[in-house]
Amino acid sequence: MEAVAKLRKSPIAPRKMRLVADLIRGVKADKAFAILKNEPKKCAIHLEKLLLAAVASWQQKNQDTPLGEAELYIKTIHVDSAGMLKRLRPAPQGRAHRIRKRFNHVTLIVDKLELYKDSVLDSEIAVDKQTKNQEKKTNGTKS
Fold it and tell me: Which residues of the chain have pLDDT under 70?
């Protein structure tokens, strides 16, 4: 059973947050914690707290399963744009430049890995079959 955690109105630009979110997408939770601990960007702190909240939410839903036995992984993570604050900065010759301070919303879904191992294995088998078919067409030589 999956658990969802949301971070609303985070004061970091979505483009900057997506750089770190891409690092942990599809990774096991314990490895994601290690990645976020060593990431120097400011948004890694926000994502680490969000991941901790998602794991706690999963643990609350599945009290009969110990957290150590469950292999949790980050199923999906979405970084969406929120509103922005528009400010003006003085510019030369009496002009004004607009400054846009952007915000974002992050949605993180954590799930147990065992439920999806079969589908991952099926997709790997399909890829193996596809590569074998390509080798047959090229008479065993790779192009």
Answer: 115-143
Supply the DSSP symbol for 1.
Answer: -
Assess contact for 23 and 110: CB atoms under 8 A.
Answer: no
* Annotated domain spans of the chain: 3-112
Residue 116 backbone dihedrals phi, psi, to 5 degrees: -115, 5
Q: Global pTM?
A: 0.76
Which pLDDT belongs to residue 52?
Answer: 96
What integer pLDDT is reported at residue 9 of this predicted model? 95
**Dist. CA 36–CA 46, nearest whole Å:** 9
Q: What kind of architecture, by CATH, is found in domain 3-112?
A: Alpha-Beta Complex (3.90)
The Cα 22–Cα 44 span in angstroms is 11
